[in-house]
Amino acid sequence: MKWSRRHILDTDDWSRDEIESVLETTGAMVEVLSRPVRKAPPLRGRTVILFFAEASTRTRVSFELAAKALSADVTNVTASGSSVEKGETLLDTVRTLEALGGDLVVMRHASSGAPYFVAERTSTPVINAGDGAHAHPTQGLLDAYTLRGALGDLDGRRVVIVGDVTHSRVARSDVNTLVPLGARITLSGPPTLMPAAWRCGALPDGVAYEPDLDRALDGADAVIALRLQKERQESGLLPSLREYTRVWGLTGARVARMRPDAPVMHPGPMNEGIEIDAAVAHGTRSLVETQVRNGVAVRMALLYLLAGTPSLEAA
Ligand code: NCD
Fold first, then answer.
1. 92: number of Cβ within 10 Å
2. Whose C-alpha lies nearest to ligand 1, atom 12?
């Protein structure tokens, strides 16, 4: 398949072939990362601008490692210390970024839709590294790659996503990426943290809601726990953290309800002891570190595809 997208904003309108293309290219990048010198030349002479206007460590570092493994130059623009703090509008920021001569912009922003706004107004390809509660396409793709690695074909496999689905761009992007690959998703978590339409049964194809986590996990093929944003308790959406942990926390006993060896995933950062027990987070079924490793390869694949698939071999 010839890659034709200019930006990576969300996977909600992607075909299965496009997702497969990224996963296949990711395999090639895993190979690059296993070489004695973990570097290939395709982005030599190009500059990737990382514009992160919201806190992030692992996603930003992951993109930085990905860009450097493809020999790109990397410039970081963070919100604190940049003119975003001085009230510069997003449009001015974009113009400045463009004038700086970046060949690709990776951006994270607290407002849903910000990467769309930028993408419509610049000739530079934009990758969404997370916008508000809307989408986090690179996380969806790395989760798909990780699940494929653990389970093989995802057709008919049932994946549980538990936690604060309403505020989770990860949950949305996981659904948008895993369902086209044939997986079925069972969402679980407090009704107050589930989008109203979904809670009331108007769910997308391939997605179900089961508030009882034990039932959701019975016979499941994998589980993805979401970070609980503690501020939800202050906003009255949760009775107490202890109550949340009792009803929706991922414990060893709950994990044992899934199929034998069914993997446990989490996008990080984890609140150990709240949404996931430390023993589960670091246990034999945990793929959390594999997710982080695969994240670099997936981001390399996307940078490479957007750059027009230059050769991976040294000239
Ligand atoms: C996620 C994010 O920022 O959306 N984390 C990440 O990308 N590593 C999930 C989260 O913050 O809960």
1. 12
2. 227
- CB of 169 within 6 A of ligand 1: the answer is yes
Burial of 208 (0-12, 13-18, 19+ CB in 10 A): middle
Neighbouring-strand partners of residue 222? 159
How many angstroms is it from 1 CA to the middle of ligand 1?
A: 30
Does the beta carbon of 139 lie inside 6 Å of ligand 1? yes
Please indicate, yes or no, whether the overall pTM of this predicted structure exceeds 0.90.
yes
Q: Closest Cα partner for 177 from 22, 4, 3, 289? A: 22
Among 95-99, 132-136, 154-158, 268-272, the least confident range: 95-99
* Ligand 1 contacts CB of residue 268 (under 6 A): yes
Per-residue confidence at 232, pLDDT binned at 50, 70, 90? confident
Looking at per-residue pLDDT, the higher value among 122 and 28 belongs to 28
Establish whether residue 230 lines the binding site of ligand 1, counting it when its CB lies within 6 angstroms of any ligand atom: no
pLDDT in tens, 7-26: 999 999 999 999 999 999 99
What is the C-alpha to C-alpha distance for residues 275 and 272, in angstroms, rounded to an integer?
7
Instruction: State in Å: Cα 58 to ligand 1 middle.
Output: 9
Transcribe 27-81 into DSSP letters: HHHHHHHTSSS----TTTT-EEEEEE-S--SHHHHHHHHHHHHTT-EEEEEESTT
Specify the 3-state DSSP secondary structure of 156. Answer: coil
Q: How far is the CA of 37 from the centre of ligand 1 (A)?
A: 30
Q: What is the mean pLDDT of residues 182-196?
A: 96
3-state helix vs strand vs coil in the chain, percent to 5 = 40, 15, 45
Cα–Cα distance measured from residue 47 to residue 11, given in angstroms and rounded to the nearest whole number:
25
| Predicted local confidence at residue 293, as pLDDT | 97
